[in-house]
Every structure is written in structure tokens, then in C-alpha cells.
């Protein structure tokens, strides 16, 4: 994706200001847009529940929804990192499919155990990300074109290797990676601990910034704690009512926290925001641009592997349609969650919440028996409105 540059000569102080602004954006745990998405989710849940005759808001259905959303949430978080740096990835669905083929082949054909299968599949995904990064960074081909080629090539490789056939079945232990559950009591204890830890973090951030933001910061604190309380309370209700925490949700939580730490507490994360905000300023600030982009594509590649493992575990097989349109869901989720297409803005929690919101729409429409063809139309409109909103916000903030 094309990045903006400052007109004329860029002075180091300007780069420093951009870096500071990027750092402030990166340090936000939950921004107002993420909170808005939580409110939208609640409203959609109420509408779908009323329309479905109290079927939507049941522990069983919400547990299914979380499992459905987990894979898209992971790749949405990954593509948001690339988008923050001013790049894009259109190959996600095909890449996840090919990694799923690798995972199924290792399980079925070669008889490998769960852990070796996971590690080798992630390794293949990283190599795929490295391959695409090579064309973007070293050869200089725009990421839009490189990953569009990957969308075609990776699925073609998978079809050739399997003759477009389904590979099944994987072992029960492998399926449990996505379809298993943490026992109810352990789930509730874990959620309470997570709630206390998150609340303590929010309160500590509030004390640090209180002197600068005053009452506005207090209102933000209340909204964050309220959203956290509602979210964890809902999860406890779901877990207590249906078998505990889905293991797929554990993957999202762990990887989401890791990526959030990477983007808010590391040099890579701070540099990512400046790289996307102004690439020329990033170069003048001494950021190793090539290494930055390579790491971004390799992170995305690792998520191909994890998503491929979880997708194969979820359906117990690798099928020719695996990952179809996943790149659109991932990009839409990231944009809905506040990631700007032009780079420099976005959060990991926002991308994950955006993906869950899309899964909510999918799940609700399926319960209401809306035609799958109409569902595609609605998802297309959601993507269109998300991109239009991003364009509107860019112009409003003087970035268009």
C-alpha cells in the first residue's frame, strides 16, 4: 500500500513528534472505537436474540460463535500489523488453506504427533510469509500485487498436492486443539484472575495519566471497566452454561496478548506505527525498514500456520474450500476495529473485536435461516461500509 510522505524536507524533530504520537497510540489498551464495537455487539445480540426466539443468547450458541470467530480473529490481528505498517495481505485464505493441507498431511500421511505437526506447520507458514516479504522488500513489488499472486499460487499448490481432495480424518487429540474445552471450574477461576489482572492494569494506567486528562480520563476509565466487566461476565455465563472455555478462545487470548505486547511494549511495535504514519520520516529516524517489514510478514506467516492448524482441527480435515474469502473477513474485521488502510493507526484488541463482530453477524444470519447468497451480499456491504468509514475518518483527520 502506498504511504504518505511529508511535503518538502522532513526535519528530525518532526520525526520525533511522529514517533511520540505513534507511541501514544500504541499504548492504548482499548480505544473508544473498540468500546463502540462492544456496544454494537450487545445491540446486535439483542436484535438477533429477539428475532430468533431466544436462541442466539444461549451459552451453547455463544460458545459456537466464539469458536467460529477465533480463526478470523487471529488473522485479523496479524493483518492489522501489516496494515499499521502501510502494507496489506490478500493471500490469507489461500495461505491458511495450504497450511491446513500441510497439517492434515503430517497427521494423516506421516502419522506425526500433535506438537510436531503444529511446529512444522507454523514453520511452513513463516516461510510463506518470508517468501512474500522477499518480493515486497527486496524486489520492490507492492504488497497488494505480491499477496494477490499468493492468493492464487498458494491455493493452486494445495490443490496440486491433494488433487483438490479432502484429507481426513485427523486424530481426536489434534481436533481438541480447536474443539476441546477447559473444565468449567478452571474456566471460571481463569476468567476471574484475568479480570482482576486487566482491571489492575487499567487502574494503573488511569493513575499515571490522571494528571493530564482529568475528568475525561475518568469517564474513559469507567467505560473501559464497564466493557471489561460485561465481557468477562458474559464469558463466565457462557462457560458455566456450556462445558467451559473453548480451547480455540485460549489460542486467541494468548496470541492476542502476545501481539498486543509486541505492538505496545517493543521497539518493533513503536517503529511499526511510525513506518505506517510516514515512511520517509521512519527512514530519517533510523528505522531499519527492510527488517521491520520482513518481521511483519513473518509474523503474518506464523499466524497462517496457527490458523491452518486450528481450521483443520475444527473440521477434522483439510477441504478444498478451507479459507475461502477469509482475507476479506480479516481485513474487514481489522478495519471495523479501527485499523486504517493508509497505515499508522490500529490496535490488536480492536481487530479481534471487529472479527468477533463479523462472526456475530454471520452467526445471527445463519440462525435466522437467511440465504447464504444474501449473507454474501450483506458481508460485502459490511466491508464496503467499513472501508467508506475508514476513508471518512482519514479525511476528517487530515490524512486523506
UniProtKB/TrEMBL annotation:
Function text: Part of the binding-protein-dependent transport system for D-xylose. Probably responsible for the translocation of the substrate across the membrane.
InterPro entries xref list: ABC_transp_permease
Main location: membrane
Phylogenetic lineage: Bacteria, Pseudomonadati, Pseudomonadota, Betaproteobacteria, Burkholderiales
Membrane topology: Multi-pass membrane protein
Keywords: Cell inner membrane, Cell membrane, Membrane, Sugar transport, Transmembrane, Transmembrane helix, Transport
Residues passing through the membrane, by range: 34-52, 64-84, 96-128, 134-153, 184-204, 225-243, 249-268, 289-311, 331-358, 370-389
Species annotation: Paraburkholderia youngii
Compartments, record wording: Cell membrane
Name of the protein in its database record: Xylose transport system permease protein XylH
